[in-house]
Fold:
Amino acid sequence: MANGGEMKKRDATRGNVCLAVLILMVLIFPAGCATTPPAYPRPSPDYAAPPRPEGVFSAMEETIKRNHGDDSSGFLLLDGNGEALQCRLALADSARHTLDLQYYIWYADDSGLLLMKRVVDAANRGVKVRILLDDLKVALSKAPPYIRDKYLASIVSHPNIEIRLFNAWKSRRGAVRGAELLGRMERLNRRMHNKQMIADNRAAIIGGRNIADEYTGFNDEFNFVDLDVLGVGPAARQASEVFDRFWNSEWVVSARDLIEPIPEADAKAIHESVTQRLQASKKLAGIAVEPGDWKDTCGSLEKSLSIGKSRVLTDSPDRDAISHHMPQAVREFLLSADEEVLITNSYFIPGEKAVEGLRQGAKRGVRIRILTNSLASQEVTAVHSHYKQWRRPLIEAGVELYEVRPDAAIKKTRADTPPVASKFMSMHTKSMVVDRKRVFIGSMNLDPRSYQINSEMGIIVESPDLARKLAGVMELGMHPENSWRVEIDPEGDLLWVSGAETLTRQPARSFMQRVKDVFFVLSPKDLY
Structure:
């Protein structure tokens, strides 16, 4: 397992910075390394199975349907990292028939291995499992934290598991990938940023979390505060439609066509070593390694669900491009506000058009509050370098602007999962509330990469109860113990105000971070 410094360095790069590094490889390795890769067959079409009348999720959905109608789902906010991991384990352990998982990142760290083990356990008892991963991180699997091809090879031969890779590298060798990138840059730059998990086509988790220690509270260096929502009912079928669209697109290949199988004895040894590692993990001491019975937990959960009607939205992986439907959907969602807009977004680079839209909303009397990362909490300094120029225009447009503290009080309760106490907290949430009636939760950052390059997804829920709960979570993040409010003083200078504390210089974790903040202004803003 990587130490904290390695993990911090890994996450500071993000997806496309890795691509930039690979470009340099072209200069190192001779062009002769590039060979025409073989054409892999398209996997056979496959679609989510209709839900069956068995299991805890079936019973929950029947209760919701009986009390609220056929088109209503029940929703639960997953705003704590530990809770979010437990909910995923519950879905894996409770699934009777199918599990579908779609993720941009799935690291082979403690939480990633734990969830994968429970998914394999589900397959062992007969559950049909489909896993769709973006191949950027899988392709860079020689770095210790990433899921390795060798580990995947121990899984892909399972008769009940199929893994497909989105926008895959045609070679698993790093040297050849550099040359491949040069010839396929336009396509390889487009990544699948979607994040969801669906059990039995009845329960789905949708939101911002990837599968890795920093998203579940187990990273010693830093942990994200993030947000998902569990939906039980028609919302799960809506999520399945999105999954199937990507699963059957021309952008995917079967992992079995890219990763060489390994002998059964070797696969068994790998799975045994994973179990031993999980059992020895001090971080996971409070979490069972083996599957559990969640019937009672799910039964009590039913009373906590907020009822509402939903739409699951996505960009579309068309044959030669990703069609970006999410930006317009988000604009329409925000323009529907009559009184109030709350936005929490981790990677926020708005642009003139967005600022003008917010200005017009404020002129109509809509109160607009935005919470994003400060330089001090941002783990991707380059994003902040392109965000900071928009602080003043946003405030002048009438926006109340807040920036997260790295030492926020909620770090102990929502970001860190005991026994871990990380060095700082960052924010990874992508959520919005309009008029305390409607909510958006998803994978989409408000930045050029999400608008124009990556695929994204999210769910809009009409539910005053869920909106009230989410607004409370967002407003807590704006409290002085958790964030600074950015203001402009009478002399026109920016101030960072948090209770009795007022800073006249943007907060940062270190001098070097300030240096990077200046340097990254020179880089293209759509890299991040």
Notes: Residues 1-37, 141-146 have pLDDT under 50 and may be disordered. The CA atoms of residues 55 and 380 lie 42 Å apart.
